[in-house]
Amino acid sequence: MANEERIVARFNDGRVLKGYTRDFTAESDFFLLDEIGSGKEHRIAVADLKAVFFIKSFEGNKEYRERKAFGVSAHDGHKVYIKFSDQESLVGFVEGEIPWEKGFFVSRDGGRAKGFYLIPVDRDSNNVKVFVVGTSVEDVTIMMKLKYSDVKGVVDPE
After folding, report:
1. Residues near 71 by beta carbon (within 8 Å), at least 6 away in sequence
2. What share of the chain is helix, strand, coil (3-state, %, to 5)?
3. What whole-number distance in Å separates Cα of residue 138 and Cα of residue 146?
4. Spatial contact of 54 and 131, defined as CB atoms under 8 Å apart
C-alpha cells in the first residue's frame, strides 16, 4: 500500500477506528480512512477527533509498557505534557513553536492547522507520531529545558 500510513483515529466520543490514510494533513478538515478488516472507507471530520496516532503496526505489543518519562534524550523538540479535555494525557516532543498560549490553541499559519504533531518520548513505542487536535486539548505544559550546568553535581559529557 504505497504512500499509505497506518493510523488509529481516536474520536472525542471515545470511538476508535483503525486503518490506512493517504490524504491526512495538519490543515485537513476531512480525510479518508480505509478501515482494516472491513475495508470500508470512512470520511473523517478532524473536528470530531481527539487525536490521530500514526503507528508502526496494528497489532502492537500488548506485553510492552511504554515509557512515559522524558529521561535523557537527544531529541531537540520542546518537552510537553498534553492534557486532553477528557482528562487523558500524553507526553512527548513538539518541534518548532508551541501552538499554545494562555489556555488557547493558537494557529500561527493563518488558521489552517487543526492541531500539532507530538513525537512520543519512547522511541520503542508503537506510535511514530501523534497528531493532537487542538480543540480536544485542555492544557499544555511545557517542560523547562535544563543544561547540564544547571544541575548540581552533573558533568556535561561533551
Report:
1. 121
2. 5, 40, 50
3. 26
4. yes
Backbone φ, ψ for residue 141 (5° rounding)? -110, 125
The rounded distance, in Å, linking the Cα atoms of 148 and 126 is: 30
Closest CA to 92 of 81, 101, 83, 100: 81
Please tell me the distance from the alpha carbon of residue 32 to that of residue 158, in angstroms, as a whole number.
Answer: 47
Going from the C-alpha of 5 to that of each of 21, 43, 66, the distances in angstroms are: 5, 16, 21
Structural domain boundaries in the chain = 5-58+67-145
Does domain 5-58+67-145 correspond to CATH entry 2.30.30.100?
Answer: yes
- 8 Å CB contact between 127 and 54: yes
Q: Name which of 114, 147, 151 is nearest 133 in CA terms.
A: 114
Instruction: List, for residues 44-98, the tens digit of each pLDDT value.
Output: 999 999 999 999 999 877 777 766 666 655 566 778 888 999 999 988 888 766 6
Cβ neighbors of 113 (< 8 A, separation 6 or more) are: 26, 27, 99, 107, 134
